[in-house]
Amino acid sequence: MRRPPVQSTAMPYYLTTPIYYVNSTPHIGHAYTTIAADVLVRHQRQRGEETFFLTGVDEHASKVARVAAEQGLQPKEYADRIVEVWRELPRRLDATNDFFIRTTDDGHKRFVQEFLERIRANGDVYQDVYAGLYCVGCEAFKTESELVDGKCPEHGIEPEWIEERNWFFRLSAYQEPLLGLYDARPDFVLPAFRYNEARSFIAGGLQDFSISRAGQPWGVPIPWDPDQVAYVWADALVNYLSALSYARPGEDLRERFWPGVRHLLGKDILRFHCVYWPAMLLAAGYEVPRQLFVHGYLLLDDRKISKTLGNVLDPLDLIDVYGADAVRFWSIRAVSFGQDGSASVEGLRERYERELANELGNLLSRTTAMIARYRGGAVTACPSPGSAVASLLAGLAGDVADRLDRYDLTGALERIWEVVRGLNRHVEAQAPWQLAKDEARAAELDRTLYDLADGLRAVAVALAAFVPSTSARILAALGADPADLRWEGVAYGRSDDLTGIAPAPPLFPRIDAPTAAA
Ligand code: MSP
Questions:
Q1: Alpha-carbon distance 384 to 373, whole Å?
Q2: Could you tell me if the CB of 21 is within 6 A of ligand 1?
Q3: Cut 0.90: pTM above it
Q4: ∠ CA 363-406-44, rounded to 5°
Q5: N or C: which end of the chain has fewer CB within 10 A?
Q6: Ranges of residues in the chain whose predicted pLDDT is under 50
């Protein structure tokens, strides 16, 4: 048994999403984690950090083999087809993942075998017979006490009786090391209530679990017993490490990015990530992750969105109608990140019109139109440190960064939006259309127009992680460099002379078929 190692510092920022099961196509719940991860990674890049962003798919599940059989296909054949839809997901969401892992990649399979061998060499693997109830939805064994009316509460299906000789991982031996780890690192799991949930689960006693499956060929063969395959979770969790070993041919990214990894995941898979995974890493002689953040569910009509429950919302349909930025914006704003909350297509439409089109889009249209109309598209840089816009922007960069460091994506976006609303109030208060009538107030008009443009520029840089293409369009419309997203730009008075500013077309045009995705 190995002791939990001391946490390393000054590591680059490596962030992962769970790898998604390919037994069906993506729904908005999957898009949710990918969007959140992309926001965090883009933000770190703006701060000049070196980053690595991993997402991908989990293919060796029994439910994948079942769906394939239903379609008369071999599991791999089925997976090769459906994986294209899953690759589309990050692309269409405008997510900037550095690698897309498939658990059927040779590099991954080899790594899993080596990883399991290391656990075995450490004396933590033994053979035993397992008999119990298995929920194929969770891909996990269930105890009677976890069932409601004999069914899995998560999936609403009856688990199946399974009895087979398997290889077991001695999880029970890791209770003390895990408790030590949790005590030493109170921010190992966030939010705090999830940390408590994971810690109490560990404190309640840990049972060894089976890391292999007999009698099903779909999976990574157990190296010392090729009649069995790795249990899907013992295979899937390892992706976070395996990817680093082959994502860049000829390079071993583990040196740079492990253990500086942060895992984002939904609350449904807390135990696997917060208990099983660190124990497996310790057993295999690896350092445990830097941090895990567990978010809540996005609910539709107060029920979890899932294929099994039949209330799926196809994110690609929503993107077709509203665009990636609006879907990103809405999913972060609709529900406080970390909590459960309800979202709806009506909510998306409403935010699109009120917040994106009116509050942000009109602000840009008005600002650029006034600069074009009153100043022929040009205003000399004239920052005035005591101005209302200067105080609106004061503290913004620090506040947003602090919130994102705490995974408070919703709070960070709201903090930026306070400034958007403040800029709108500033337009009304200054009434540039009145100033323009009075030649004696020409300097005041210049300052007002410069401040509005500069405020919008700073907001666009702050928003870049959330709504990347909108941000780029705002910057371009203001004559700023859309590629310069350095976080220092989230400050007052950084705009140069404004030249060649023309009235910007609407950022968020009216959508005539607003219910198309409903
Ligand atoms: N394959 C496993 C994960 C293995 S990770 C080593 C799995 N896959 S899954 O396809 O079921 O996706 C689970 C993840 O998708 C959740 O943890 C969460 O990140 C996201 N979500 C799926 N439905 C969701 C909601 N309704 N709301 C928010 N996120 C949800 O479990």
A1: 23
A2: yes
A3: yes
A4: 65
A5: N
A6: 1-9, 514-518
Per-residue pLDDT at 294: 98
155 is an active site residue: yes
Using alpha carbons, select from 409, 366, 417 the residue that is nearest to residue 392: 417
Q: Which pLDDT value is given to residue 10?
A: 56
- Distance between CA 245 and CA 463 in Å, rounded? 33
In the sheet that holds 99-102, the strands lie side by side as 99-102, 51-58, 13-21, 261-266, 291-295, 189-190
Nearest CA to ligand 1 atom 13: 20
CA of 51 to the centre of ligand 1 (A): 23
Coil vs helix vs strand at 128: strand
* Ramachandran sector of residue 205 (left: φ over 0; alpha: ψ -120 to 50; beta: rest): left
According to the model, what pLDDT value does residue 3 have? 43
> If residue 13 lies in a helix (H) or strand (E), which one and from where to where?
strand 13-21
Instruction: Print the SS3 string covering 435-475.
Output: HCCCHHHHHHHHHHHHHHHHHHHHHHHHHCCCCHHHHHHHH
Helix (H) or strand (E) holding 100: strand 99-102
Give the C-alpha separation, 376 to 462, whole Å. 28
Residue 306 CA to ligand 1 centre (angstroms): 9
Which pLDDT belongs to residue 508? 98
Closest CA to 60 of 266, 231, 224: 231
Assess whether 138 carries a catalytic annotation.
Answer: yes
Tokens standing for residue 258: 């492990």
The amino acid sitting at 407 is Y
Whether 236 is in the pocket of ligand 1, judged by its Cβ within 6 Å, is yes
Ligand 1 centroid – CA 267 distance (Å): 8
Cα 340 to Cα 267: distance, rounded to the nearest angstrom: 10
> Cβ(269) to ligand 1 under 6 A?
yes
Which of 21, 82, 138, 309 has most ligand 1 atoms within 8 Å of its beta carbon, as the pocket-test mutant? 21
CB burial of residue 413 (10 Å; 0-12, 13-18, 19+)? buried
* Helix segments in 291-441, DSSP class H: 315-322, 324-334, 345-351, 363-375, 388-393, 396-405, 409-430, 432-435
Express each pLDDT in 5-55 by its tens digit. Answer: 444 445 799 999 999 999 999 999 999 999 999 999 999 999 999 999 999
pLDDT score, position 8:
40
Is residue 11 a contact partner of residue 290, using CB atoms and an 8 Å limit? Answer: yes
